Amino acid sequence: MTVAMLEDRSLMKRLKARKYDMMLTDPAWGAGVLLAHHLQLPLVYNVRWIMNGEGHFAIAPSPVSAGLLSGPYTKLFATGIVDPKIDFNELAQAADLWPMRVDFTFEFQRPTMPNIIYMGGFQCSPAQTLPGDLEEFVQNSGEHGFIIMSLCPTP
Question: Does 155 reside within a domain?
Fold first, then answer.
């Protein structure tokens, strides 16, 4: 699927023309990492785990497992769809922002990097009605819609 996506010139042209601000992806599926690199977009993860393990261990100065690249991704590098000089693990580790869905207070002590944001419990509150000003913004967002994300704790 990744190969087909990156080889689809029409799709790549449309994605580049959109001029997205960033790529929000699940790093457990490496295609998003490669697509962000291909489109030269800042990379933001939406989960704690990456393809080769736990996110903290991948970027913090801790013992890091090697996480060998294998399977369908080897074709991408072997065929030249992705530059074979690129180290996939370096791409994965170079994400601009790592939102971690954990509560730091429940974790053991470990070094963290400045681009890690702890957002534990962000999924735990029941949905509430939007305040009037935000509801108006949503209703007037036009054909392109909107994305809203809050990293503020709920009261």
Answer: no
Q: 138 Cβ partners below 8 Å, 6+ apart? A: 130, 146, 148
Look at residue 131 and tell me if it is in a domain: no
Specify if 143 maps to a domain.
no
The pTM of the full predicted model, rounded to 2 decimals, is 0.59
> What's the rounded Cα separation, in Å, for the pair 115 and 5?
29
Tell me which residue of 82, 85, 61 sits closest to 73, measured CA to CA.
82
Taking all residues of the chain, what is their mean pLDDT, rounded to a whole number? 76
Range of the domain at 59: 2-123
**End-to-end CA separation in angstroms for the chain:** 42
| Predicted local distance difference test score (pLDDT) of residue 84 | 73
> Residue 104: which of 56, 146, 50 has the closest Cα?
56
Cβ-proximal residues to 122 (8 Å cutoff; 6+ apart), any chain: 101, 151
- How far are the Cα atoms of 50, 60, 101, 103, 120 from residue 107, in angstroms, in the given order? 18, 14, 11, 7, 11
Q: How confident is the model at residue 67 (pLDDT cuts 50, 70, 90)?
A: very low
